[in-house]
């Protein structure tokens, strides 16, 4: 099914509905649910087609989802930033040491489209689930 037809179907299904929980992830480049930097913080559509940057595509190879960069699509369907923020609760899981810079960015970078994960700090009910390697830059060592 072409991206545009699927986007129309998804947007029609979700528009006007309250989402209780959004389950999302943060990428190595700080992307939020495939909204790569610079992410669009303004678009109102619930689902959008996003262009995946090379860092995001390389992450997909590094995680073993694809054998080579050539196999990774340059486009994907993602929930928009605004739609994510409309959820009553956000559950964000971030595993792996390769994401420790992104975790640091989520908690400390200025909130901006260049650090999409930073916008999570504006949500009143967001929980990050990290493993120890992902938390490497924020752990206090004694």
Can you tell me about this structure?
- Helix content is 25%, strand content 18%.
- The chain has 142 residues and is of the alpha/beta class.
- It has a single domain (3-130), classed as 3-Layer(aba) Sandwich (Rossmann fold), CATH 3.40.50.
- The protein has a 3-stranded parallel beta sheet with strand order 1-4-5, with no helix packed on it. Strands 2-3 form a two-stranded antiparallel ribbon.
Descriptive labels:
alpha/beta; Rossmann fold; three-stranded parallel beta sheet; two-stranded antiparallel sheet; 4 helices; 5 strands; about 20% strand
SSE blueprint and pairings:
Layout: H1 3-14, E1 21-25, E2 47-51, H2 54-62, E3 75-79, H3 81-86, E4 89-94, H4 100-108, E5 126-130
Parallel strand pairs: 1-4, 4-5
Antiparallel strand pairs: 2-3
The average pLDDT value, as a whole number, equals: 93
List the helices and strands in order. Answer: HEEHEHEHE
Structural class category: alpha/beta
CATH domain topology: Rossmann fold
What percent of residues adopt helix (DSSP H or I)? Answer: 25-40%
């Amino acid at each position: 099914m072409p991206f545009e037809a699927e986007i129309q179907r998804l947007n029609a299904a979700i528009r006007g509905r309250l989402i209780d929980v959004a389950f999302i992830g943060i990428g190595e480049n700080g992307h939020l649910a495939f909204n790569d930097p610079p992410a669009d913080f303004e678009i109102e559509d619930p689902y959008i087609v996003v262009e995946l940057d090379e860092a995001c595509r390389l992450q997909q190879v590094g995680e073993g989802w694809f054998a080579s960069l050539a196999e990774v699509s340059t486009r994907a369907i993602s929930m928009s930033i605004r739609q994510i923020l409309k959820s009553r609760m956000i559950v964000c899981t971030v595993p792996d040491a390769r994401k420790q810079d992104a975790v640091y960015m989520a908690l400390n970078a200025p909130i901006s489209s260049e650090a999409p994960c930073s916008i999570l700090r504006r949500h009143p009910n967001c929980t990050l689930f990290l493993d120890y390697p992902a938390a490497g830059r924020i752990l206090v060592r004694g």
